[in-house]
Specification:
Helix content: over 70%
Number of helices: 5
Bound molecules: fe (ii) ion
Order of helices and strands: HHHHH
Structural class: mainly alpha
Radius of gyration: 17 Å
CATH topology: Four Helix Bundle (Hemerythrin (Met), subunit A)
CATH superfamily: nmb1532 protein domain like
Protein backbone atom coordinates (compact mmCIF):
# COMPACT_ATOMS: atom_id res chain seq x y z
CA UNK A 1 0.00 0.00 0.00
CA UNK A 2 1.50 3.36 -0.99
CA UNK A 3 2.43 5.83 1.74
CA UNK A 4 -0.43 8.31 2.03
CA UNK A 5 1.95 11.00 3.19
CA UNK A 6 4.87 11.16 0.77
CA UNK A 7 5.76 14.74 1.80
CA UNK A 8 5.87 13.72 5.46
CA UNK A 9 8.12 10.83 4.48
CA UNK A 10 10.59 13.19 2.77
CA UNK A 11 10.54 15.65 5.69
CA UNK A 12 11.17 12.80 8.10
CA UNK A 13 14.22 11.80 6.05
CA UNK A 14 15.42 15.41 6.26
CA UNK A 15 15.44 15.15 10.08
CA UNK A 16 17.85 12.22 9.86
CA UNK A 17 20.17 14.05 7.45
CA UNK A 18 20.15 17.17 9.67
CA UNK A 19 21.17 14.99 12.60
CA UNK A 20 24.05 13.48 10.59
CA UNK A 21 25.11 16.99 9.50
CA UNK A 22 25.54 17.99 13.16
CA UNK A 23 27.80 14.96 13.63
CA UNK A 24 29.69 15.80 10.42
CA UNK A 25 30.24 19.37 11.59
CA UNK A 26 31.75 18.19 14.90
CA UNK A 27 34.03 15.63 13.18
CA UNK A 28 35.18 18.10 10.55
CA UNK A 29 35.89 20.77 13.18
CA UNK A 30 38.09 18.36 15.13
CA UNK A 31 39.72 17.13 11.90
CA UNK A 32 38.70 13.52 12.62
CA UNK A 33 38.94 12.38 9.00
CA UNK A 34 37.97 8.75 9.70
CA UNK A 35 34.76 9.89 11.27
CA UNK A 36 34.10 12.42 8.46
CA UNK A 37 34.43 9.59 5.93
CA UNK A 38 32.07 7.35 7.90
CA UNK A 39 29.40 10.03 8.32
CA UNK A 40 29.73 11.08 4.69
CA UNK A 41 29.01 7.54 3.54
CA UNK A 42 25.94 7.39 5.82
CA UNK A 43 24.70 10.66 4.33
CA UNK A 44 25.33 9.39 0.79
CA UNK A 45 23.59 6.08 1.40
CA UNK A 46 20.59 7.95 2.72
CA UNK A 47 20.55 10.82 0.23
CA UNK A 48 20.74 8.77 -2.97
CA UNK A 49 17.27 7.18 -2.61
CA UNK A 50 15.91 10.42 -1.11
CA UNK A 51 17.04 12.47 -4.13
CA UNK A 52 15.51 9.83 -6.44
CA UNK A 53 12.18 10.08 -4.63
CA UNK A 54 12.27 13.84 -5.09
CA UNK A 55 13.57 13.89 -8.66
CA UNK A 56 11.44 11.05 -10.02
CA UNK A 57 8.53 11.06 -7.56
CA UNK A 58 7.64 14.52 -6.31
CA UNK A 59 9.27 16.99 -8.71
CA UNK A 60 7.59 15.84 -11.96
CA UNK A 61 4.15 16.13 -10.33
CA UNK A 62 4.94 19.43 -8.62
CA UNK A 63 6.54 20.80 -11.80
CA UNK A 64 3.29 20.14 -13.66
CA UNK A 65 1.41 22.09 -10.99
CA UNK A 66 3.78 25.09 -11.27
CA UNK A 67 3.47 25.08 -15.09
CA UNK A 68 -0.32 24.97 -14.86
CA UNK A 69 -0.42 27.73 -12.25
CA UNK A 70 1.86 30.00 -14.34
CA UNK A 71 -0.16 29.38 -17.52
CA UNK A 72 -3.39 30.23 -15.73
CA UNK A 73 -1.82 33.54 -14.70
CA UNK A 74 -0.83 34.18 -18.32
CA UNK A 75 2.95 33.84 -18.15
CA UNK A 76 5.82 31.38 -18.18
CA UNK A 77 6.89 29.74 -14.96
CA UNK A 78 9.49 31.84 -13.09
CA UNK A 79 12.40 31.32 -12.61
CA UNK A 80 12.78 29.40 -15.92
CA UNK A 81 11.87 25.79 -15.23
CA UNK A 82 10.28 26.84 -11.96
CA UNK A 83 11.25 26.15 -8.36
CA UNK A 84 11.70 22.47 -9.21
CA UNK A 85 14.63 23.31 -11.52
CA UNK A 86 16.19 25.35 -8.72
CA UNK A 87 16.03 22.29 -6.44
CA UNK A 88 17.43 20.04 -9.21
CA UNK A 89 20.35 22.46 -9.66
CA UNK A 90 20.98 22.33 -5.91
CA UNK A 91 21.02 18.51 -6.00
CA UNK A 92 23.69 18.77 -8.70
CA UNK A 93 25.78 21.16 -6.57
CA UNK A 94 25.40 18.87 -3.54
CA UNK A 95 26.58 15.83 -5.55
CA UNK A 96 29.52 17.86 -6.84
CA UNK A 97 30.66 19.00 -3.40
CA UNK A 98 30.34 15.41 -2.10
CA UNK A 99 32.75 14.34 -4.87
CA UNK A 100 35.19 17.13 -3.98
CA UNK A 101 35.00 16.18 -0.31
CA UNK A 102 35.72 12.54 -1.15
CA UNK A 103 38.74 13.60 -3.19
CA UNK A 104 40.03 15.75 -0.33
CA UNK A 105 39.54 12.80 2.05
CA UNK A 106 41.46 10.51 -0.30
CA UNK A 107 44.32 12.98 -0.39
CA UNK A 108 44.19 13.29 3.42
CA UNK A 109 44.13 17.09 3.20
CA UNK A 110 42.62 17.94 6.56
CA UNK A 111 42.11 21.69 6.05
CA UNK A 112 40.46 21.10 2.68
CA UNK A 113 38.26 18.38 4.17
CA UNK A 114 37.10 20.80 6.84
CA UNK A 115 36.33 23.51 4.26
CA UNK A 116 34.51 21.19 1.84
CA UNK A 117 32.58 19.52 4.67
CA UNK A 118 31.39 22.92 5.89
CA UNK A 119 30.38 23.86 2.37
CA UNK A 120 28.36 20.64 2.08
CA UNK A 121 26.76 21.21 5.49
CA UNK A 122 25.73 24.77 4.57
CA UNK A 123 24.35 23.71 1.18
CA UNK A 124 22.36 20.79 2.55
CA UNK A 125 20.94 22.76 5.46
CA UNK A 126 19.70 25.57 3.23
CA UNK A 127 18.40 23.09 0.64
CA UNK A 128 16.44 21.16 3.27
CA UNK A 129 15.14 24.40 4.75
CA UNK A 130 13.83 25.55 1.36
CA UNK A 131 12.23 22.20 0.64
CA UNK A 132 10.54 21.93 4.03
CA UNK A 133 9.45 25.56 4.31
CA UNK A 134 8.76 26.57 0.71
CA UNK A 135 8.50 23.69 -1.75
CA UNK A 136 6.74 21.10 0.40
CA UNK A 137 4.45 23.77 1.84
CA UNK A 138 3.46 24.78 -1.71
CA UNK A 139 2.97 21.10 -2.55
CA UNK A 140 0.77 20.33 0.43
CA UNK A 141 -1.28 23.48 -0.10
CA UNK A 142 -1.82 22.99 -3.82
CA UNK A 143 -1.53 19.37 -4.95
CA UNK A 144 -4.84 17.56 -5.25
CA UNK A 145 -5.31 14.29 -3.36
CA UNK A 146 -4.98 12.47 -6.72
CA UNK A 147 -1.64 14.17 -7.32
CA UNK A 148 -0.43 13.25 -3.83
CA UNK A 149 -1.50 9.66 -4.55
CA UNK A 150 0.48 9.79 -7.80
CA UNK A 151 3.59 10.89 -5.87
CA UNK A 152 3.02 8.04 -3.39
CA UNK A 153 2.63 5.53 -6.23
CA UNK A 154 5.85 6.81 -7.85
CA UNK A 155 7.64 6.29 -4.50
CA UNK A 156 6.36 2.71 -4.39
CA UNK A 157 7.66 2.01 -7.88
CA UNK A 158 11.08 3.37 -6.90
CA UNK A 159 11.22 1.07 -3.89
CA UNK A 160 10.85 -2.02 -6.11
CA UNK A 161 14.17 -3.69 -6.91
FE1 LIG B 1 16.16 17.86 -2.40
FE1 LIG C 1 14.96 16.64 0.32
Amino acid sequence: MPSSNPLGELSCEHRYVLDRLRALEASAASLDLGSVREILSEIQAYSAPHFRKEEEGLFPVLGRYFEKAATSMGGPVRPPGGPVQVMMAEHKSIRMIVELLEKALNRGEAAEVRGKAQHLIDLLRSHIYREDHVLFKAASANLTSEEVEEVAARFQRLKKP
